[in-house]
């Protein structure tokens, strides 16, 4: 596009010289002759010269205006190129773990973007080991290295280490689950070594203005027992943002408490009571590990495919 601007400038310059020559050459040839006997003819020559000079001045004014227009075109071209480059970068960054790990099929840290949250890419942990992969880890407990008894601000923004103990943050969780339909997969393991899972066909967390409620929870499947359905509709509670009888103060951690809980995966680590609980597995017995993951459903993928077209 920029080379076209240069071509226009060159053609314009050639045209200007041609017009200048065609207008000025006949006048100089005719009016430059010695015609002392004809004052009328001299007068006509003067008039023609004035007309040509006026026309040339007008051409010069047009040229100045054209320079301004061409400069504006060049500026627009530069800005357009910048926008195209930005769009290219955005298209090259995945929007889910299904896309991010599509080539490597390896579990680990990837960068993705989420239009409803931010234009800036951010790091997430993708799990490729469960049910053909594509899972985005939103919570993980594997040790007592990170304290989960935190305030509302920290649970909103997220905390921990991506590949260890981790909480993704309620704002991202809301953005993911409200932008497109997601399913939920929870893995848990007892200190004795037995492993369990709970899977829900849909999972939606509301906005902060609503209290980040557990708005939708789909059909359950698994071996852990359905200990999350009880919390459906409950608002999220932290020690400094109580939405249910100070459950977070008494049991520590934060959760979708509801007088108080049947499940609580953000409780204190390593305790038999008031710990990482899932009553469908055992009452008053804390889990050794827990991991929550979400993945776009087939309905979501079809929607994204149609949007891309």
TrEMBL record:
Q: For this UniProt entry, which residues form the secretion signal?
A: 1-32
What keywords would UniProt list here? Disulfide bond, Signal
Gene for this chain? Fcn1_0
- By its UniProt entry, which InterPro entries does this protein fall under? Fibrinogen-like_C (IPR036056), Fibrinogen_a/b/g_C_1 (IPR014716), Fibrinogen_a/b/g_C_dom (IPR002181), Fibrinogen_C-term_domain (IPR050373), Fibrinogen_CS (IPR020837)
The record's SMART domains line, in alphabetical order, gives: FBG
Transmembrane stretches in the record are none
Report the protein name in the record: Ficolin-1
Q: Which domain of life is it from?
A: Eukaryota
Q: What is the lineage of its organism?
A: Eukaryota, Metazoa, Ecdysozoa, Arthropoda, Hexapoda
Q: Where does the Fibrinogen C-terminal domain start and stop, copy by copy? A: 88-298
Is the Protein biosynthesis keyword given for this protein?
A: no
List the GO cellular component terms: extracellular space
List the CDD domains: FReD
